[in-house]
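Form 7-S
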Amino acid sequence: ARTFGAGVGGRKMVRRGGRAASLDDPIDRGGARGFAGDRAGRREHEPAATALSRALAYAPTDVETLRELARLQWRAPSKALVVTLVTLAQELPGDLDALHDAARIAKENVGDPVLVRELLAKLFRAAERLWQRGEAAKGERPADRTALEAHAELVRLEVEGGRNKNAVDWLVEGARLPVSPADRRTLLRRAGDLAREKLGDDARAMQLY
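Output:
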């Protein structure tokens, strides 16, 4: 196929078998994925990723294309992979795997603490919604464990960063999860301790105990 000019609405058109077609046509997106797969098979990963990115410019929510692009980007994890995973997570409601991986890459490979906290908060909210509704996650990561792990990491990061008010707020929010009464008391007690010792807010501490 060869690209020529712009078609209706400014879309790039390709000549395929004597017909003009746009890359937002499923047939042509499949062709772009096939080209990318061929390049990846030859270990030409950069051209493959470029082909998939171009396909996504015309169909940014195509799940299979996003998955193939993420597969290539995993070879050298970067912020580009985080963006791909977050977009994929938006198209897979109820599946926590992509968002979990995005948070992990942001922490381990990108090293952006603000982005890490933002993604962990998104992950916590997504997992919390499923858990509160009693719905099972569609991916490999269960909602309850994912919510608890994301919550614990958020609290740890806020305390380590000296953002103790945020940590107190997260602990209070964690106490609203469907955890046992003992776990709820532990979370509120810790929130009260932080409020008293780090914020000097005895009134709030008394409310939390």
